[in-house]
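Recall the central idea of this unit: under ordinary conditions, the amino acid sequence of a chain determines the structure it adopts. In this exercise we apply that idea directly, starting from the sequence alone.
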Amino acid sequence: MDHNGSSVMPPQSVAEAEALVQRLYKVATAKTVSDINDQLLRLQHSAEGWQLADALMSSEDPTVRFFAANTFTVKLNNDGPKLDDDTARAIQMRLITWLVRSSRQGEGAMIIRKLCSTLTTYFVRSPLLWERPLTHVGLSLQTGDAVNEQDLANVRAEHVSEALDGSLLVILLWFSATIADEVSKVDTNSSAHAKIHQQMEEIVKDASSILATAFRTRDPKVRAEGLKAFLTWVNYAQPVWPRKPESLQHLRNLVELAAQALVDPALQHDALDIFRDILESYTSFFQPHHMQLLGRIVSEHVQPKLLQALEEGDPEGLPYGQMVIAFGVANIQDVVEEPQTSESAATIVKLHFDILRAPGYPGDEDEIAVLSIEFWNTYVEYVNDTVFSQNAGEPSPHWLPYAKSALTQLVELSWLKMCTPPANIAKEWTDAEHDGFKEFRLDATDLMLSIFVCLGKDMLQQLVTLITQSLGNKQWRAVEAGLFCLNVLADNVIEDQAGEDILAGIFNSSLFRDVGDFTQTIPSQARRTAIDVLGSYGQYIERHAEFLPDTVRFLFASLETGLLASTAAKAIAALCAACRGSLTGELDGFLQQYNSFLDGQCSEPYTKEKVIGAIAAIIQALKPESAKVRPLLALIETVEKDVQLAMASNASGEHELAELVGVMALNCLASIGKNLQQPEDVPINIYDDDEQTSSVPSFWTSGEAQGVQQRIVGCFSVLQVLGNDGDAIEAACQVLRSGFAETEPGPFVLPASVTVTFLQQCSITTPQLESVLSTACILITQHSKSGSERISAEVTAICEQVASFMQQMGTSNLDPSVAQGCIDIFGRLIPCYLHLLFIAGSTLSHQLPMILQFTLQAIENQDIFPRRSAADLWAKLISQLSADPQGNISQVIQAYGLQLALSLMRQIGGMGQRSELDYLSDPLKALIANVPAAKGWLEAALFSNGFSAVTDRVGDAEKRRFLSQLIALRGNGRKTKELVREFYAACRGTVVSYG
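Accordingly, the structure predicted from this sequence is:
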């Protein structure tokens, strides 16, 4: 079909074929390359196909010539192995003839490269062994016509290549590179291709001779193509010849010749790219004397070029820097261990320092600094690995003092390079330049972490000194860079208390008084990073309460500044959580500042949620419990104001404002609840007397405490206007869950009836209903634990509501996530509340058949999560048979066992997913282990029409074998799962047979 949809007849003549290609090519957007190839392949299947193809290669239109060559590539890929010997030889000679003729006629590179590719396809796909393709093509190029392969007996590749002029030698290099590249894509493990790779061990001899000739010429174009072909051959050799040093040596012998291009101004950049590539990807290719040669070249020729480029800020210096980095990484052992005895090692370290000293900002005009991080990461990794792998008592390496000195210098240079640019420079940057600088800072701080492993507190002291010196000079960008590094090291520094006294140099300084003085002109980034440090070093400040006043004043002052508000709120939350016990005396002041903050412009959902949670954390630390009531009610009052505002806004038609404020109110309430929880890291005081311990439950069950809870529950009234807002529902769930984790009564440990009422107010269309169901699941789980209060009435109410949801859905397919939540509720009844389903005459007992049917249908649900929950429920239910003296569970199993067996077998028979088989195996194991009738049910299921509708790939004998093996395993977990997987594979046809 052409692009208009009309039929295109196969061409019958050269003119027709040529016109067809030209026409199709003009509408290339509508016709693909394969369409054009298909038309030409039809042409070449005709009786005069060879003559027509030959004529097309003589077309004046290069597009026609290109497609004529390309069709042979396609045809050889498809039909090459099927050719008879005579046809294969004829095609070989014809392709060589075309290549020679094209080269003599000055054909463009596109056509000649395509012919080289076609010849390579012939080499790979032809049934005939082409022993010396490079010499064959080379001699043909030399003589001006295709020569017979038999004429190559005494021909040497170096003589042929030396006789070619520059343009013909380039073509031969193209062909050489194409062979190496294409054969590298041929599977080395395939027996069908083993001969090709074996033959390459011979061809490399000719290739290396041709490359040697290219490297010896004075023509820069020939030498440049030689470098490219050399790299292609090295890339081929890397995965194929790791244990064939004799083949690899032919290429290694070329290194010294190829390296001459590194000192040739006309070829230097190309050569740098080639050698850098090999250094990075195939370091072991170079032998020791090669590395010595490259080291001399780096010292004598690369170094001056790089230094000049760094001084002038010339981007043309990038290839020189990349070569230095690659050489350093490849020789890292010598660089680390021999810097004082090896000239090249010393040069590499010096140049990497020079890279960091160079002017410019990383990511902007200084790209080399970004790349140099790779070298330093390798350097530090080598040092750390060597030092920490030593045995105890073993002397330190002789080079370690020098390495530590180098790393100390690296810390200072990296710190300087991390300083942010002035605003007048930064505002001119593109997004890419900003991202580049950020990437450098992140990479550099990761490097700092590795250096800290080696230098420890010496590095910490160095950073503190750099920060305080810069602070004294009011060099705020340098201060910020130092704090940025300090922030990254926080976890390591806090773990090692040896740095406690060193950190005092920062916290005793004027830093936080200065940054907290907003009359001073200080970059916002410096203040923001100072805030981050306070969030990171909260544990340190907790141990040194004398630093709290300055830091807290600074944070609350920052809260009033738009650019810093979010960062300050996050730091306040972290600091107050860590130092809650030391801040109880400041609580009234914090409450006052928070109320003031609420009236400011920076009060928004995130900051309010963080700060109110921070104050709640301090309230948690108050003793006795009664002391918490007044400040807690003060926080709840701010939430109540937002609830009232939300309801008033909704009444006045401002629905968006109502949603924003209402959700914020519930999130703030959840934040209070979360931060009032007992911290996980609080030590247990074994000297607390029983009277003091018992004061907690006694107070929070008193009338005064219940008044606090009523205020908390009262905030849920906002759901009257936000009941269809998913964020509000989720926030309300978080409020309820904040009390579930507590082991003692508390303000947010609400009566179970609150959660029940919340669930009962939901409908099947309530957004985030699955979150409400999950909350109810957690409630049941908490009250199923040993020693917890049993809440049978509340659990019954929950189950009745959930059963109504199931009845309304009818099937778990309607809403899989809600269906899973409903099934999980009933799964949580086992074992403590399972009896509630069987109380005679109860609503639940009447709903039980519907509930069970819903779960059975869920096993065949396309969604995996309801299926998993349903399988888990039935597995647990069957496992309770022995603990069921009344026989209720037994009656359920007898009634639904056959249906369960069929559902399980249909899933295992191929309907389910392989990843679900372990879940489906659980109820299957439970049936076999606990129910004598299970064998009959499973047999009936396997031979039912319902199972046959799933698969016909297993016969009756295979089904019986599977069943007998299942029963014999008697519920053995691991072996049953293996057997199920094997049977599933047979049913799906992914194995030949089962047995």
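The chain has 52 helices and no strands.
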